[in-house]
Fold:
Amino acid sequence: MKFYNRIKELELLARTLEQSKKSSCFTVTVGRRRIGKTYLLLESVKGQKYLYLFVSRKSEPLLCEQFQKDAADALGLQIFGTITRFKDLFEQLLIFATKEHYMLIIDEFQEFDNVNSSIFSDIQNLWDQYKDRAKINFIASGSIYSMMMKIFENRKEPLFGRLTSKITLQPFAVSVIKEILNDYNPKYTSEDLLCLYMLAGGIPKYIDLLMEAGAVTKDKILDMVTRPDSPFISEGRELLISEFGKEYGTYFSILQLIASGKTTQSEIDSIIGKNTGAYLINLDKEYSLITRNKPMFSKPESRKNRWILNDNYLRFWFRFIFPNQSLIEMGKYDLLREYINKGYEQYSGLILEKYFRSKIAEEERITNIGSYWDNKGENEIDLIALNDLDKTVMVAEVKRNPKKINLNMLQTKADSIKKELAEYGAEFRGFSMGDM
Structure:
């Protein structure tokens, strides 16, 4: 798949590159696996002198041996003798930068913790020694969100406060997903687009896997997902096991419940059998996997919380794949497909709401977007988009079938927030598959 979008990120990296020719820069790029960090960084260094190092789980001497070869190939830097400690190699790279400008990219940076956790302190000490003399654009990239945040944003960690800039890579916007699907299937339907969004969200690697395999329609996408060799079957487990460690069982259970519609802590606690407040906070603050959703216009102290899974693929995986491990182990992929088909229409209807929130947030002049429900969990409004600058508000209902949209009923529901809407010029809208 060709390189799409990432215009703002490329501009930021280009500015940092220019700055690094005068003074050293230290940038971190963070984002979940498969989101395209490496692809972005390699695109940004085209035509530049750079060294790319990938941190794998090897012993430190073996890793240094590989890095020595990489440095010789990319920079022509000959380091004589056997280097067994990364600190010695890193110092040679910084000394080289005092003589010649280049870019250093270290990918899966957090894996140094498994190689030798003292490497972070070594990098900090050497960076502080050489940064004023070296002309280097140092980029650390990592995909385990919790570890990368700990390394760079925990005040107790040695690399805290050393960054010049930080890029948190987000999934592709709706417009980019549509552009890609159109390139591979100019005759795509709204159902095809919704299915692609439902499964892949805006994760470039997932979209690439589907497009290159010819899975460009709803049926072909679901066919590929439920093949015995499908990468989407095991991807959820592989993504999260390393994040959660020994506690993964409890975290997986909580995420499965949220994906199935049990979105309040009281519901989750009653099924898990214990207070899950600390786990939910970790999933939100430390892992950035869930978000606390509150009704629009609710007070900050409001306890009317509903938890939602942020990532479309993981939401799908915990809704359809994880609960059906027994079918997978028995090789009954036809029954897995049948299970997905059975719940597809209802589930995709919920994803359609998220799609339009993303689309409106991207396209419209708004300052806040969300949904609403009252204390009884009734009078639910799918979408409210505010513009506090122009004092306008869009109140919308989202349905797969446009015939099920009832704007009179929507206005009746909105009466429950009449006071909050009074200062805005309100527009009532209905969105369905035909508006995608």
Observations:
- The longest helix spans residues 333-363.
- The chain has a mean pLDDT of 94.
- The radius of gyration is 24 Å.
